[in-house]
Amino acid sequence: MLSIKSLEEIELMRESALIVSQTLGMLAKEIQPGVNTLHLDQLAENFIRDHQAEPGFLGLYDFPNTLCVSPNEQVVHGIPNKNPLVEGDILSVDCGVLKNGFYGDHAYTFQVGEVAEETQKLLEVTKKSLYIGIEAFCQGNRVGDLGHAIQSYSESFGYGVVRELVGHGLGKEMHEAPEIPNYGKRGRGKKFLNGMVIAIEPMINQGTKNIRHFNDGWTIKTADNLPSAHFEHNVALIDGKPQLLSTFNFIYEALGIKSDEEVPFKKVTL
Ligand code: MG
Ligand code: MG
């Protein structure tokens, strides 16, 4: 069932999205060569609980941790462990929280020290594809328009768009209808309606779109072992336009990055 949120509910969801955004901002400074992802997981859990929220992934479908951490060729759903991060790695961190009965769900792919130029390009294009997807989340468009926008941009660089994993509606459940694929055909699928809140999350591979599953039942990696990137925002449709609930600004502040990419999707206060 597709759930339409009231403006009051969207304000509650903004709180959940803010906490996941702050959590990733806190982690941005900690992601360094030599640090292990189990440590990051503990920091994230403590931070979320200190903000009177619950980790959203811990125990969800029996997932064992607060963060999904997926380095390099891992696409998503990596489980935190004690292996130290290495200079030149990339690390996708996906984090969920539950507050006031609503979920936030947010992801960013971080660079660990200096990374190869072609990997930086993958990160840049994947993040740009997220904003292209957000722009397509507007009145008059359908799910297929959003997917088509992300797919055609990403594939124009020769990258692979993962098919098996998709974005989703978000609310009192972590995964609500409709599914939001990062590929699709224009004019197809469910119509976007005011009050929809969705998680848009392109997962883009440097090489093949094909994936493999680890034996741990969770981790997903690229079939050719080339790197994969993942960025995720929570977006509400208000007055026919997309409005960001999550923000990368805490990450940018921590890393000293200047960016105006979120400006068109900010809440307008009169
Ligand atoms: Mg996520
Ligand atoms: Mg998600």
Structural notes for this entry:
- By secondary structure, this protein is of the alpha+beta class.
- The chain has a single domain (7-265), classed as Alpha-Beta Complex (Creatine Amidinohydrolase), CATH 3.90.230.10.
- The chain has 5 helices and 15 strands.
- It is globular and about 45 Å long.
- The two termini are 34 Å apart.
- The structure holds magnesium ion (2 copies).
- One magnesium ion (MG) is lined by residues 94, 105, 107, 201, 232.
Order of helices and strands: HHEEEEEHHEEEEEEEEEEH
**Coarse shape:** globular
Note the main sheet: 5 strands, antiparallel
Helix content: 25-40%
Largest sheet, order of strands side by side? Answer: 8-7-9-14-15
Q: What is the total tally of β strands?
A: 15
Topology at a glance:
Blueprint (H helix, E strand, L loop, with lengths): L6 H24 L6 H14 L3 E2 L11 E5 L2 E3 L13 E10 L2 E10 L5 H19 L7 H13 L4 E2 L5 E3 L6 E5 L16 E4 L2 E3 L5 E3 L6 E3 L5 E3 L2 E6 L2 E4 L4 H7 L15
Antiparallel strand pairs: 1-4, 2-4, 3-12, 4-5, 6-10, 7-8, 7-9, 9-14, 10-13, 11-12, 14-15
Helix pairs in contact: 1-2, 1-5, 3-4
The protein binds magnesium ion (2 copies).
The site of one magnesium ion (MG) has 5 residues, from strand 5.
State the main characteristics:
270 residues, Creatine Amidinohydrolase, 5-stranded antiparallel β-sheet, 4-stranded antiparallel β-sheet, 15 strands, 24% strand, binds magnesium ion
